[in-house]
Here is the input.
Amino acid sequence: LGARVAVQGFGNAGVTFARLASRAGYRIVAVSDSRGSIGNPDGLDVAAVEAYKREHGTLSGAPGAMTIEDALFAPCDVLVPAALENVIHQDNVGRIQAKVILELANGPVTPEADEALRARNITVVPDSVTNAGGVTVSCFEWQQNLAGEHWSAEEVDQKLQTIMTAAVNDMWQTSQTLSIPLRTAAHSVALCRIRDAMGAA
Here is the structure.
């Protein structure tokens, strides 16, 4: 724990991730939204930054933080693009300083940037897995409606954790076994599941 995390995009997804990661012991060293970027190498007070954003509608000028160019380029261990697609592209990928990129947004890394990151041994954890929790919980809602049931928040969290942990493990093991990137491994697992489902139909 204590790894440095930068979050680009401080909306619902980014705020929630920053809050949970901070509680888990990670240092949130940089955050940015569409109007400002701030950072602190010693770690930001996420609750204070969140409160400031609610009051002022922007991160710009948050007390106790330094204005930075963009959280995308902050020195960090884990970069979490949580806003728009294609924000990491061939023209700026060389400035990424993270060791791991966790795609919380849909498609934040272009294919060209993906190749450049791979060449630099920067691990990209794909959006098809990292932000699949929302769709999974929507499926839970559908299941509850069909059965006329109501699950507690604790039950939903437990079911989600079981499914997501299995998904990550399957992706990781496939990546290691076949020596392929995590994105390719996630697609491979998905295609194998579709094949198996069609064969069983």
In short: Residues 153-178 form the longest helix (26 residues). The mean pLDDT is 94. The chain has seven helices and seven strands. Strands lie at 4-8, 27-32, 37-39, 66-67, 78-81, 100-102, 123-125.
